[in-house]
Design goal:
It comes from Xyrichtys novacula (Pearly razorfish). Probable zinc metalloprotease. GO terms for molecular function: metal ion binding; metallopeptidase activity. By secondary structure, the protein is α/β, with parallel strands linked by helices. It has a single domain, classed as Collagenase (Catalytic Domain) (3-Layer(aba) Sandwich). About 35% of the residues lie in helices and about 15% in strands. The chain is built from 13 helices and eleven strands. The chain is globular and about 60 Å long. Helix 12 packs antiparallel against helix 13. The termini are far apart.
């Protein structure tokens, strides 16, 4: 199964619509009516159930979990009607992938350059790895040695509209398939270079083969200046590079690493890996697994799961909910301070954009740790 994450550049304004589910509908989506799944749910602690059932109060001001608000006809839900996936549908899906003792590692493969400075680039990729390991708590996340675009032998082009370089997703997925370690649950390719899936498409944010546990995603368009005429990645010359001549990527511009870019990168990375567990786009409550058709919609998504999707990933991995939240909170709060034996420059982790998420995690932990 292939998933493509794409973007509509036009947005048609409509009156905002709040998708409000009844308490009974949300209870069924989270708990199920099947006796065995109800029994499984009862094994959560009282505090864990209290947290999960906060979603039933989504219509109340200040609730931890809020209903989805559709802002325009170009938002994902009106543009892509899908059957909602409740916990029971997820649980009985015979095709979903579940980590096991032989396949319990998420591998991240960076493709091309990241950021402007080598040391900061290395640190940025480490931040992504550490965040991914906290988010999918209980699994190991490893970085594969970085590769250049030339090493992938992928096709590429210059986009006729945006005048920036793009690389072909299908070629990258074939490259990742050859690089995928035997103990991998999945392998994810990350790049700061724009992507396209076929000649007739303008671009894609990413593409994944869920059945093969592979995906490749670009953060190029998460630069605030990407759609500006002054975007530094626009090629000024009328270049017509030949296929196989990868020198055009030498010194090619990649966005500076900002707090907003880091936040957007973390959301996209975890959303797409979530799909590899068999979690479909969420239509229950505000959730990192909501589909997004454009950057504004993606920015509205929260950093974490709603209760329904949280139960899905918890059953798949088997973590303690409080321990997972604590790990994510530590990642936000802890700076990787330099030690005396570190010879490389230290760059503080830019987590200013995570402030709202930090407060939300603290509220969740207050419930989980109440006596």
């Amino acid at each position: 199964m292939l998933f493509q994450c794409f973007h509509h550049t036009e947005q048609v304004s409509v009156l905002m619509k709040v998708i409000q589910h009844s308490v009974q509908t949300l209870q069924t989506a989270l708990i199920s009516k099947r006796h065995d799944l109800v029994e499984l749910y009862s094994k959560y602690t009282r505090e864990e159930r209290r947290l999960l059932e906060e979603g039933f109060q989504a219509d109340q001001l200040g609730s931890l979990f809020q209903p989805i608000t559709v802002h325009s006809d170009s938002d994902w839900i009106p543009a892509h009607p899908e059957e909602p996936q409740d916990f029971e549908s997820f649980y009985r899906d015979p095709y979903r992938k579940t980590p096991d003792s032989n396949h319990s590692t998420i591998y991240i493969q960076t493709i091309g350059s990241f950021g402007e400075a080598g040391a900061q680039t290395d640190q940025y990729v480490e931040w992504l790895r550490d965040y991914c390991q906290a988010f999918f708590y209980g699994l190991s996340v490893k970085l594969l040695p970085p590769v250049t675009v030339a090493e992938t032998r992928c096709s590429f082009r210059i986009n006729s509209n945006s005048c920036n370089l793009q690389i072909l997703t299908g070629d990258l997925l074939r490259f990742l398939e050859k690089r995928k370690p035997k103990d991998a649950f999945c392998i994810v390719g990350l790049t700061m270079i724009d992507l396209y899936p076929k000649d007739s498409w303008n671009f894609v944010f990413g593409q994944a083969s869920l059945s093969s546990g592979m995906g490749v995603f670009s953060f190029a368009r998460y630069d605030d200046n990407f759609y500006s005429r002054n975007y530094a990645g626009r090629l000024r010359k009328q270049l017509q590079p030949k296929q196989g001549d990868y020198s055009v990527f030498d010194g090619y511009y990649t966005p500076p690493i900002s707090s907003t870019l880091l936040l957007r990168s973390c959301k996209t990375m975890t959303h797409e890996i979530g799909h590899m567990f068999g979690i479909l786009h969420c239509q229950w409550l505000n959730c990192v697994m909501q589909g997004s058709n454009h950057l504004e919609e993606s920015d509205r998504r929260p950093l974490d799961f709603c209760p329904v999707c949280l139960r899905k990933i918890q059953v798949a991995i088997g973590f303690e909910i409080a321990e997972r939240y604590q790990a994510i909170l530590r990642w936000i709060q802890e700076d990787q301070s330099p030690t005396s034996h570190q010879p490389v420059p230290h760059f503080p982790k830019p987590t200013e954009a995570f402030h709202t998420s930090r407060l939300w995690l603290c509220r969740c932990l207050d419930i989980l740790q109440s006596i």
